[in-house]
Amino acid sequence: MSLLALPSVRRIHGWLLEHHGDTLDADRLPAIAAELERLAADQVPGAVVELGCYQGAMALWMRTVLDTTGQQYRPVHVYDSFEGLPERGPHDPQLFPTGFLRATEEEVLALHDQWGLARPAVHCGWFADTLPSRLPDRIAFAYLDGDYYDSIRLSLAATVPRLAPGGALIVDDYADVEANPKAWNGLPGVKAACDDHFGAPSPMTVLFGTGDLAFGRYYRPAGR
User: Fold this and answer.
1) pTM value?
2) Which three-class secondary structure state does DSSP give residue 133?
3) I need a labelling partner for 115 at 20 to 30 A (CA). Which of 8, 40, 62, 106 fits?
4) Which one, of 208, 218, 221, 223, lies nearest residue 168 by Cα?
5) Of 144, 156, 136, 143, whose CA–CA distance to 203 is shortest?
6) Residue 34: helix, strand or coil by DSSP?
7) Which SS3 state, helix, strand or coil, does residue 217 take?
8) Phi-psi bin for 86: left (phi > 0), alpha (psi -120 to 50), beta?
9) pLDDT greater than 90 at residue 223
């Protein structure tokens, strides 16, 4: 049975698209759900982490999917400066002002309380200060939504070594326009960071949606 066939999941799905459509869409939600469902099917150990959580909408969706697929035991950790975007680097476009997408820890927690779902562990601070010491030792799935080159490089350096065998991560705004010409390419520093981290040939694969989804996926094979 599809998750969206369940009334409780369908309500949250519809509410998120209506109220958080600026950061979530009908392509992102099922792509993340598929990864979390696979964790249960493959019995991948470890926590779920989100790097760049903003107001907590994706964290709410991940908690919903985990609970619905019998993974209530699996913790969710979210990381954000809660200062908005940092200053852009040379790889990043002049698209957003510094401080854009500022949110608060209280918004993240209140959103989960609103739906009666377990709160995530919230780690406040810039990635350079939090990721080295506050990430779980073993990660089953990571959602990297740092927007800028330096943030993604830090995120990859911290999460990839901690991925459990069979674990995966998805990088938001990863636009490989050769593989997917429809992908939104507004933040090219994201793919540049992945290319520089992994080198060539890249182990990243492109995920496709019905719209302009820009998702890159890295998978650590079981047994490695």
Assistant:
1) 0.97
2) helix
3) 40
4) 218
5) 156
6) helix
7) strand
8) beta
9) no
130 contacts: CB under 8 Å, gap ≥ 6: 79, 123, 124
Residue that has been written with the tokens 């309500």 in this structure: 11
**Using alpha carbons only, how large is the chain's radius of gyration in Å?**
16
For 120, what's the count of Cα atoms within 13 Å in the CB-facing half-sphere?
32
Domains annotated on the chain, with CATH: 3-219 (3.40.50.150)
Length of the chain: 224
Q: CA-to-CA distance for 156 and 188, rounded, in angstroms? A: 16
List the one residue out of 80, 86, 87 whose CA is nearest residue 108.
Answer: 80
Q: Quote the CA–CA distance of 142 and 163 in Å, as a whole number.
A: 8
Q: In whole angstroms, what separates CA 121 from the centre of its chain?
A: 15
Considering only 5-9, 17-21, 129-133, which range has the smallest mean pLDDT?
A: 5-9
Q: Contact 144/155 with Cβ under 8 angstroms?
A: yes
187-207 pLDDT per residue, tens: 999 999 999 999 999 999 999
pLDDT digits (tens, 9 = 90+) for 127-184: 999 999 999 999 999 999 999 999 999 999 999 999 999 999 999 999 999 999 999 9
Q: Are strands 139-144 and 47-51 parallel, antiparallel or unpaired?
A: parallel
Q: Which helix (H) or strand (E) holds 191?
A: helix 189-198
